[in-house]
Amino acid sequence: MASLVKFKFYSNSIEANRDKQILANHGIESFIANEQTIQSDWLLSQALGGIQLQVFEDQKEKAAEILENFLQNDQSRLDVEHTIPNPEFDMVCPKCGSNHLYRDENPGGLFGISLLLIGLPLKGRSNIYHCYYCDHEFKA
Asked: What is the pTM of this model?
């Protein structure tokens, strides 16, 4: 019988349970270790190596392929649907085409104040935009 091996590590249980469910949907049995311990005391995360998703050794490669395919397909689904009817500004993400963006008014700095840009006129600053759907960051 194959033994369990550490397959993937997580900082939160939501992602671990999502991946466990994806694998279960493809017939691969997996187990989550350290979830309850870390949820009750998150300071133990470093000592325990985070929340671990474990699979049987002989299914490790297949599990990796399934999760990789899922993440690639998940990103491609973002290309079409995610738009908002009246965006605050008329731009789209250059990576996925979504117009669901937000602008970082003061990139960098301390407590929202850019230490390097203090005293410069606002016209000279370029804004950094973030896409809600593909997490792409770009300047405009």
From this structure: 0.51
